């Protein structure tokens, strides 16, 4: 059974940084592409970015490209989302994703 646990969210001022982590279990992590998504209440789920299994290929939603970086440590079954230059518009519940399965999410709030 796929199990994903996100952490690292919090309250940060605009321009600040956070690093989210997602620990995975229940599947062959090192061969699995992983994604990050976010959702604001009342709005649809939004794809943030993805990373391939090896960790040498990433893609990002245009509004976060250049500010967010996805990486992974396959020895720790963990994928990361480094978020820099955070904006109020980045406020959301963030999820990691494997083939449509997500964890409980971690809340990121960007506020002055």
Which key terms come to mind for this protein?
4-stranded antiparallel sheet, 0% helix, 112 residues, mainly beta, 7-stranded mixed sheet
Question: Brief description of this entry?
Answer:
The chain is mainly β.
Gross morphology: globular
- The counted number of beta strands is 11
Approximate strand percentage: over 45%
- What is the rounded distance between the termini? 40 Å
What proportion of the residues is helical, as a percent range?
A: under 10%
Task: Describe this structure as you would to a colleague.
The chain is mainly beta and 112 residues long. It has strands at residues 3-7, 10-12, 18-25, 34-39, 46-51, 58-60, 68-73, 78-83, 92-98, 101-102, 106-110. It is globular. The termini are far apart. The mean pLDDT is 97.
Q: SSE layout and pairings?
A:
Elements: E1 3-7, E2 10-12, E3 18-25, E4 34-39, E5 46-51, E6 58-60, E7 68-73, E8 78-83, E9 92-98, E10 101-102, E11 106-110
Parallel strand pairs: 2-11
Antiparallel strand pairs: 1-3, 3-8, 4-5, 4-9, 5-6, 7-8, 9-10, 9-11
């Amino acid at each position: 059974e796929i199990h994903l646990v996100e952490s690292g969210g919090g309250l940060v001022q605009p321009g600040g940084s956070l690093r989210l982590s997602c620990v995975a279990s229940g599947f062959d992590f090192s061969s699995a592409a992983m994604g990050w998504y976010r959702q604001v209440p009342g709005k649809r789920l939004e794809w943030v970015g993805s990373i391939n299994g090896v960790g040498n290929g990433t893609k990002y939603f245009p509004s976060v490209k250049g500010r967010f970086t996805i990486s992974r440590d396959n020895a720790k079954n963990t994928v990361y989302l480094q978020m820099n230059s955070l904006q109020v518009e980045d406020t959301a519940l963030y999820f990691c994703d494997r083939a449509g399965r997500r964890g409980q999410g971690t809340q990121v709030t960007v506020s002055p």
